[in-house]
Specification:
This protein is an all-alpha fold. 40% of the residues lie in helices and 0% in strands.
Length: 134
Amino acid sequence: MYEMLTGLPPFYTTDREELFDRIKFATLKYPSTLTKNARDLLEKLFVKDPAKRLGSGPGGAQEIKDHPWFDCCNWDLIMKKEVRVPFIPNITSETDTSNFNPEFTEAPIETLRDSGILDKRADNFSGLLNYLLQ
């Protein structure tokens, strides 16, 4: 959610060890462009102590759904899948990638192997990945 609102992941750094240190010890910085409710929600979701984090109390997920940032959400309609999405991308076929940044769609598949994107978590897709990387 932080990334969707700010454009970067929380505690962003390209150094893996530094990332872990930031997650454990750093205070997250919030852009001044965030609304009061957005910042309050993020602060409550990023509480370091899981027992004190929003949604971990007796109300569970309802605590999150009741936060003022979600006041505009009609959870009943969402659960019934009756909410009209605000944007439907134009596509010309099932393989149309025009809505993705060319940085990703034009990169040679071999660069994915060297970038670290294809790590152990990709094992679930090994058949597909082996096919793509042949």
